[in-house]
Amino acid sequence: MEKQYSFLQGSCFNKTWVLQSNQPEQIKHYVCLLCEQIANPPLEINCPEHESLTIGKACLKQYLSANKNFCPIQSHDGCRYIKSKAMQLYIDDLTVMCPKQFEQDSSPSEHYEQEQDSAMIKCDFKGKIKDLNEHLQKDCQLALVNCWFKPFGCDHQCPRHKLQYHLISNLKFHFDLVTKLLDSLQHCKLHRPEETGQLRLENETSAKQFNEEKNEMVCRKEESHFHIILFVCLSIWFESKIIMTM
To answer: Which of 14, 117, 136, 203 counts the highest number of beta carbons within 10 A?
Structure first.
């Protein structure tokens, strides 16, 4: 199964980033012949007309699409290529720094405003490329994350280290979102008997009855879940009011 690195969205790895923790000799055989970055995922072009070379999958796909499937090494059709499991395993085991920290170090001007407010947050992750997805999804304080209340309508995104501030400073907004959704569920529940009656008049089959009973169970489960979330929101909101009056 081909490994996908969501943090780079299928593009080749930035060679300057990889060289922060590796020597040029370690990666010279894994450079994409088109973009000259580290091939991701690596393919091997093995046409009989020339020597075999390494290329990134997205780069090759884009090149073939734009050049009528002619080989990027020599101008012949019928370009042949294969996945290289050995190269993939080697690249997966390369040690790298956090890509978000690399971006921050490479673009200091973009973080000038952040520095004025407080000390710049840094990520000290150093590990293998194959472990990066888990790091960015669970631990990295520089990675962008969605608000916990996205399912209720909050589309805010921010670095993980700023999420707590967003949640605390928008308690009432999030509480209103949960309340609105809960009211909608309650409305759905109140009108369900009438809608169910109309459906049964139209088609009173056992399959319809089964589906209605199943939907009722799902609705009850979701309503119970939202009640729990609403209770948590109310508790947090009430606690914040007490703290502000102290």
So the answer is: 136
